[in-house]
């Protein structure tokens, strides 16, 4: 039986996607009334979603000014990646030894979906990325790690989708790298899993450097 997300979770997922793909643009002023209309949900779930997005630095709530979509600079992303590298290293190491059989089976299945991914559908790929991130951190069986990793990965996904030099090429490249992590964890190979995790982080650093000189794309998706 599938878990049915509550209304606050639904509001969060909807708004997080719209921020990630810049339907809600960096620096844009948001109102509860506008977001209620946008999501089709009530004031309470929208307000709870905004509080969660603020904790994850997707939005900024400024007293007497309102709620704004947060910006993220290349410099901030470099600092974020320093932490993400260390935490993903820990996550894959723990997952190698703690993943349960059903989780390993899910990793192999998800790896196959990544290997088969083709095209430029960024929203479809975003769902795959969320599944990878959620599965690996869940397999680490450390609730504190999950809480710490989720906002880092969400912010990093947002930056990455906004700065891809070539969508089709980079989605395929990212699919291969995430697939390699899943396969290594599922097969209990710690050294390969860590190396694959580091390769992914090195790639994200390269994309961030490219973003320094590339014009920013808007209205993606």
> What does the largest sheet look like?
3 strands, antiparallel
Unreliable runs, pLDDT <50, ≥5 residues? none
Helix tally?
A: 9
Shape summary: globular
Relative helix content: over 70%
Radius of gyration: 18 Å
State the total count of DSSP E strands.
3
What is the mean predicted local confidence, pLDDT?
Answer: 92
Output the helix-strand order: HEHHEEHHHHHH
* Class inferred from helices and paired strands: mainly alpha
Description:
The protein is mostly helical. It has nine helices and three strands. The protein has helices spanning 7-20, 32-39, 43-55, 74-98, 101-116, 122-139, 143-162, 167-186, 190-213, and strands at residues 29-30, 59-62, 66-69. The protein has a three-stranded antiparallel sheet. Helix 4 packs across helix 7, helix 5 packs antiparallel against helix 6 (122-139) and helix 6 (122-139) runs parallel beside helix 8. The chain is globular, with a radius of gyration of 18 Å. The two termini are 31 Å apart. The model has no long low-confidence stretch (mean pLDDT 92).
Quick structural overview:
The protein is mainly α. The protein has nine helices and three strands; from the N terminus they run H-E-H-H-E-E-H-H-H-H-H-H. The chain has a three-stranded antiparallel β-sheet with strand order 1-3-2.
Write the layout of secondary structure elements.
Layout: H1 7-20, E1 29-30, H2 32-39, H3 43-55, E2 59-62, E3 66-69, H4 74-98, H5 101-116, H6 122-139, H7 143-162, H8 167-186, H9 190-213
Antiparallel strand pairs: 1-3, 2-3
Helix pairs in contact: 1-3, 4-6, 4-7, 4-8, 4-9, 5-6, 5-8, 6-7, 6-8, 8-9
């Amino acid at each position: 039986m599938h878990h049915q997300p509550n209304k606050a979770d639904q509001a969060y997922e909807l708004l997080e996607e719209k921020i990630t793909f810049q339907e809600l643009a960096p620096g844009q002023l948001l109102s509860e009334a506008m977001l209620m209309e946008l999501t089709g949900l009530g004031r309470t779930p929208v307000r709870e979603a905004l509080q969660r997005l603020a904790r994850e630095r997707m939005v900024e709530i400024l007293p007497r000014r309102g709620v704004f979509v947060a910006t993220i600079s290349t410099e901030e992303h470099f600092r974020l990646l320093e932490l993400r590298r260390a935490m993903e290293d820990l996550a894959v190491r723990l997952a190698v030894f703690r993943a349960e059989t059903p989780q390993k089976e899910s990793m192999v299945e998800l790896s196959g979906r990544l290997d088969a991914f083709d095209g430029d559908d960024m929203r479809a790929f975003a769902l795959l990325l969320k599944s990878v991130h959620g599965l690996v951190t869940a397999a680490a069986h450390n609730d504190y790690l999950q809480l710490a990793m989720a906002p880092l990965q969400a912010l990093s996904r947002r930056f990455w989708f906004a700065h891809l030099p070539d969508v089709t090429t980079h989605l395929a490249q990212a699919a291969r790298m995430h697939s390699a992590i899943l396969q290594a964890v599922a097969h209990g190979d710690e050294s390969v899993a860590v190396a694959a995790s580091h390769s992914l982080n090195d790639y994200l650093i390269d994309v961030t450097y490219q973003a320094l000189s590339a014009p920013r794309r808007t209205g993606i998706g």
